[in-house]
Amino acid sequence: MAAPLGRLHLVTDVRRDRDPVAAVRAALSAGVPVVQVRVADHVSDLGAYHFTALILELCREAGATCLVNDRLHIALATGADGGHVGGDDLPVSAARRVLGPDAILGTTAHDAFTAQAAVAAGASYLSVSPAMLPEVAAAVSVPVIAIGSVTPERIPDLLAAGAYGIAVASAISGASDPRAAAASLLAALASHSGTVTPSGAPATMSP
After folding, report:
1. CA nearest 174: which of 9, 22, 2?
2. pLDDT digit string (tens) for 63-91?
3. Residue 43 placed within a domain
4. For residue 27, which of 9, 48, 53 has the smallest C-alpha distance?
5. pTM value?
6. Is residue 117 part of a domain?
């Protein structure tokens, strides 16, 4: 059975001026339920494996979900909960075959057509820019995660537009206090927990 999908996703920020492990520790201590492991393209598979294994261990200790962006073989090798593929990665149907039927599989959608195709191919959730939220959320019944310039102040409008949750990177890892930043985002999500999901059913979501 797939791990439950939380409403706040932290995407690891691996820029040179950031400490992704420290940011993940801080975010998990605040209660962030999902970490998406993203590594730079130049990082070797060995480096990606060790980094992912460390983040996965932190997630397991915190009871959080761990997904791996792009490198699905790393997700399999480490035992992560699933993965996320973009437009230049494996097609969703192929990614689903790689991960198996029970893993969480996310992908990025840019319009209603690509969103519906992704869901038909096996996507568990979709990442969408705020501008495309209403169109995509109305077209699918899987969770839609808003990504791009998300702040606590924008969360009510994003949820009203059909978002199930949000994904951020620098909003947490670039903050002077990552734990406080994560807590602020979680509080904003929690205060709007009665939001209706895209399918029209009352939202019963993880934090």
Report:
1. 22
2. 999 999 999 999 999 999 999 999 899 99
3. yes
4. 9
5. 0.90
6. yes
